Structures are given as C-alpha cells and as structure tokens.
Amino acid sequence: MKKIIALLSLLFISTLSAQDPPLKLVVAGLTHGHVGWILSRESNTDINMVGIVEPNQKLAKKLSDEFGFSMDIVFNSMDEMLQNISPDAVAAFGNIKDHLQVVQACAPKGIHVMVEKPLATTYDEAQQIKALADKHNIHVLTNYETSWYETNVKAISMYRQGDIGELRKVIIRDGHKGPKKIGVSNEFFEWLTDPQLNGGGAITDFGCYGANLMTWITKGKKPNTVTAVTQQLQKENNPKVDDDATIILTYDNEMAILEPSWNWPIGRKDMELYGTKGVIYSDNPTQLRLRLSKGYSEYTEETFLLGERKEPYNDPFAVFAAVINGSLKLEPYNVYSLENNMITMLILQSAINSAKNGKTVQLN
pTM for the complete prediction? Predict the structure, then answer.
C-alpha cells in the first residue's frame, strides 16, 4: 500500500510540474467595447494579466474602478511597457489601425499577438503584419465572436459530410442598429466611425465576419470576383463612413452574399448554407436547423439546440494560450488563423474598392 501511495504521489507531483506556467498577457488599448471580456475574465491558471497599455489615464482609471485592476500596471505606450515587463503575449483592444503598431513592437521580441477583428484596416497593413509574424515566428490570431458559435462548427461539419449535397450559395448577415443607437462608449464610437482608424464603417466592422466564415467554409479559397455596394442611411450618426453594405463573392461552383449593416432592427450574426439537397440555417449561437428537400416545395426540417463550445474553444483567450504553449494546433484556415485572415482582408479591401469605384474586382 505504501508503495502505491508513493507512486501516486510521484505521479501527482510530475503532473503539476508538467503544467505550463500562466501566460503573461498584456492588454494593449482599452477603447474597444469588447475589452471587458478580458478584464472580467475569471482568474485561471492559463493566463496572468501583467500589464495594460492605455494613454487615456481617465479611461484607465474608470475601468480600474470597474474591474479592479491596479493602476500600477497601466503604461502610456508599448515602449514604456516593454521597458518594464516582458510579456509572452499581447491582446490588442484599441482601434484597428493600432494593430500594425502592436505587431511591430511585439514581433521582434518574440511576443505573440491576438487582435480583435478585423486583422487590419487595409490589405497592405495585413501584409506587413504577416511579414513580421513570419520573420519573427510569432502567432498572430484574430478573434471573432462567431468563433465561439457551436452552431457554425456543426453547420460546416454537416455540409462537409454531405448532408446538403454540393454547396451552391451562402448568405451571411451580421450587424445591429448602429453604434450610436446601441449606445457604445464615446471612446469606442470615436474610432469605430473613423474611416482611417477602422478602415470603413459597417463594411469592415461586420463584413469581416462573412469573409472570415467563407474562407473557413471553402478551406482557403479566394473568390474569383468581389462586388460590393455601400450606403449611408444614418448620416446624422455616421457622417464619415458607410453603415450598410452588400458584398457578393463568386467562386467556381458557389457564391456568397454578405450583408453587414448598422441598420438591422435587431442584432444578428446568422448564416445560411444552401446545397443541392437542402439548407442549413445557423440561426444564432445555440440554434441550428437542417431542412432537406422532399420535392418541389415539400421538405423535412430538424432543429438542433446546442450548448457552448468545449474547452478551450469556448474562450478565445484560452485558445490563444493553448496555441502558444503548443497544446492546441488549429486546423488550416481556421477562423483565428493568419492565413484565413489574410484572405479575409483581401476580400474586404476588394469590397471597399468595388464600392468606391462601382466595378467588380477580379481576383482570379
């Protein structure tokens, strides 16, 4: 019995020693409306927030009071932060234009980066980010809310196993009533409606979701053509940027219609996959429907009610930590991946150019 207890004790000790130390994470920027996700994250053994970069000290103090972090870990710039601490990773929660600057500061020091969608404001900036990531061998992940949807994972799995036959059309709708109408913070609104800091309006803020999902669905295919139109339906709220867009992507055997908008009456992030035998409706994070044709207008329909994704996929920061420590290897062209988001940025840039020039952009 003593020998068994001794062996179990050794096994327990070796298990503890084999655990990876917490990831030392810095949050770069506090102006993004989603920054509360990381600031309110429960203390886990995988991540330890060791610093924050935010030049707006008034905003930093406000969030310090709300979330309980110490102002002692707040720095005015990336340079100041890097002179004082050596993080393993940085999560960017400032404006989209800052993503390149964050990677420029982190990559030479081997610091991995996660940004909020989209990857960059322009395709040129995305290319610079990729060049730095490749040169310095760091991970650069892009976080999308739809990455957490089990319905999207199941929808694509069902399509790939042939449930709806060959894919013909995908319709993806994303958005809400608009930043002003849903009451985002002044700091968030200021850059979200700035064409330089955000890259555009709804076309970038929500167009990136559909482009990202289509690149995942097609396993990295670039569309043959990109055609887009934009409108400004709330000039009083969004005077500098579009607030409604329609993007059409054509491929060899299928097409996609992306409908990003700040004019939906309700918030939405849904997807429809149309095949030769049926359609999959990914209605929201938890509900999915499979409708199969049984004739001209007859069909059967099955509804699936799903829970959240399993660990670590239910938490983007857990995914980030697992990728860095090597316990998780993402599939090619996964929604987080740099190769996916390079194509996503190519689609977005082409859509912006198409809307501006009134012409279809030929990619292949």
Answer: 0.93
